[in-house]
Amino acid sequence: MSSAQDLWSRAIALHGEARYQEALECLRSIEPILGDNPTLISNIGVVWRDAGDLDRSEECFRRVCAARPDDPAAHFNLSLTLLRAGKLGEGFREYEWRWRVEQFAAQRRAFAEPCWTGEPLQGRRILLWSEQGAGDSIQFARYARLVREAGGDVVLETLPHLERLFSWMDGGLPVFTELGKQPEFDLQCPLMSLPSLLGTELESIPSPARFSIPGQSREAWRQRLQGSRSNVGIVWAANPAYYSNSLRSLPAQLFAPLIGRCDVRWWALQVGAAAAETPDGVGDLSGELTDFAETAAAISVLDLVITVDTAVAHLAGSLGKPVWLLLCHACDWRWLMGREDSPWYPTMRLFRQKRPGDWEDAIDGVANRLDQWRQRSL
Questions:
Q1: Whole-prediction pTM
Q2: What average pLDDT does the structure give for the chain?
Q3: Comparing 11 with 141, which gets the higher pLDDT?
Q4: I want to staple 314 with a disulfide (CB 3.0 to 4.6 A). Which of 51, 58, 135, 260 is the partner?
Q5: Does the 215-377 domain belong in CATH 3.40.50.2000?
Q6: Rounded to 5, what percent of the chain is helix, strand, coil?
Q7: What is the mean pLDDT of residues 301-320?
Q8: 154: closest CA among 91, 99, 209?
Q9: Would you list the DSSP string of 134-183?
Q10: Which uninterrupted H or E stretch holds 195?
Q11: What's the fold here for domain 4-102?
């Protein structure tokens, strides 16, 4: 008979291979040995969430939170399940526990100025700062407008490779990076705490931040990509530094059946090492996409963007471009469950894996949709 430790290790391995039912069987077989063990219940909750059963996942994390009210990991995991289920109000409140979870320790900032807790701003200057990746920053920059409307004198701190893009954001907010000289301010708040402070629910998600591309930049890219055919940009690999990169990314050659299928010109918006995999028949722009502002300028003259879950998806959605997002089976919470649209980006369409690790159905869905899209654009 296998020991509890052996079964636990096997469950972790099976979960990593997206063999969720087998992982659950292993974890459930440990329950008679360990009883009502909070760590075991939390692990079961994670597997249920990735398997797509959000009700059972929520039940597990609520049990742990009831037994251990000060357990940051349990609250944080509950938040991810609630957010994926579209229960944004409670989900974003629980998401505030992230600051007590080890994986966020390096992102927490030590400011002398107090963190805004939702009290009237009355013209005080408030620093809104990017806490996570580029995609998160682009997605949640939309809240800067609401903070200004609530009476704040807003300044925005962002990542260096986003600084120029954010200087193009409608509203004309002062923008700087952590590397630059910091302005004086009265209050500060991380961007991803704003949905909770401003009471965001599924029905009240604000419209994306908008970026006005300078005419000179837009025209330069129009000349670069000129032609009589439609222009489509593609991205196949997410940030390799992100823990779920291997799940979110797909081999570049899976785009091969799409290339040449329609009378379009294909352009790779892929940057980094993965750009070396650019398929035949696709223009490689990686050497020209020096920051997100340049990528935005290129996207502004494209007709369509097809991408995996990475910052380009948020950028194209914020620019109001048609964007087709390829999602792995256990996708990030912000894309919810079972939907083909996104309340975060009106111009976005979602193509999901039906089986973990299998991109075939998603790519087939894109191919069929591409034929229809091209016929309408003729």
A1: 0.94
A2: 92
A3: 141
A4: 135
A5: yes
A6: 50, 15, 35
A7: 97
A8: 209
A9: HHHHHHHTTHHHHHHHTT-EEEEEE-GGGHHHHHTBTT---EEETTSPPP
A10: helix 194-197
A11: 1.25.40
